[in-house]
Amino acid sequence: MSLSLVLIVGVLGVFGASVTSLVLVDILLLGFLALFYKWRTGEVKEKESGLQHLDGILNVISDAVLALDNDFRFTYCNRHGERLLNASFIQLKGCVLWECFPEAVDTPAYALFQQVMHQHKAGEVQFYYPLLKRHLHVRAYPADEGITVYFTDETERIQQEEILRHQQKIQAVGELTGGVAHDFNNALQVISGMAEILEDRLQNDSVALGHLAILKQASDRSAALTQQLLAFSRRQTLMPETLDLNQHLYKMAPLLRSTLGETVRLAIRGASQLAWVNIDAHQFDNALLNLAINARDAMPQGGCFSIRVTHTCIETAEAETYDLIPGDFVEVSIEDTGGGITEDIVTQIFEPFFTTKAPGVGTGLGLSAVYGFVRQSHGHILAYSEPGQGTTFRLYLPASAAPELCA
Questions:
Q1: How many structural domains comprise the chain?
Q2: Are residues 259 and 368 both part of a single domain?
Q3: What contacts 113, CB < 8 A, 6 or more positions away?
Q4: Three-state secondary structure call for residue 141
């Protein structure tokens, strides 16, 4: 039985009339209404199927997609948008954007959305949103009842570009510094050699010997600074050997404790397996002592200096970012509980002569030398810090095979 006939019979049953009691126009009208209902039901189902298909497409794209009505209330949010906003669409539906995220009123997005809503003209803007800690590229388009917004998270791309620019800057400074340090080191060797010759010839002149002693001290200090510059520029001579960082760090513990002082606690946690690396042990010790001295100075009231060794694998994409060879690495994580530093300082701490210490305290070359040593050892070093959260350095050194035992 057709749907139209069912509706007609149903209506007649309600009014207690027979088919012959209805005029032909009424029958045709009821039939039309039944057909319209059938068509409309099919249209709704088809529309719902289309919306589900569209929602499936929007949920797999990398952009966050939002739909807002004329009052800036959420009418749609795809899955990427939920992750970006850290809220589900069920929570957001019907809520006003500016009430959910009042901090957004002070961003360029507010002016953009108002403009698109009232002028019915598409627009875009890029900005950093501190609440989400994201660099966003926002595009807004007018819709029939409100606006549609696409958010592209540019954070990773911008961070990669900043890393590349910083590495290029460090490399350029390193090449310049290395050239100057090499020539200066040659001149220092001449000065030091002549001082030793004069010292032999002036054995009976105490005044002259005193002056020569001052000259030699100044020459030695300058030579030490030159070596740090050469280390930063990756021009120092390394003598690598294969060693297990677990055992090496435990052997260094007494020296580290005396460097840190009584108020700073030392904690060393080795890897669960032997951590073989092929590095210059002496230069590694110098790098670790530099980091320990910085940590001690950052904790005048005492604290904890911890070292943790783990194994990690760096894949191709990450390796390309840091100019490394993909593969297995030994990660040495060095953390202090000091006051921490701001992000703008973190980006500069490996630059030569950069220091946050008072004038005359330190040369600003310690961390530069650490950076140069790690890079010359085919590894990489990263720094993480926030005010009040301490500072963490992570050294990534290529893992090495265990040394062969002599028969």
A1: 4
A2: yes
A3: 68, 72, 97, 140, 147, 149
A4: strand
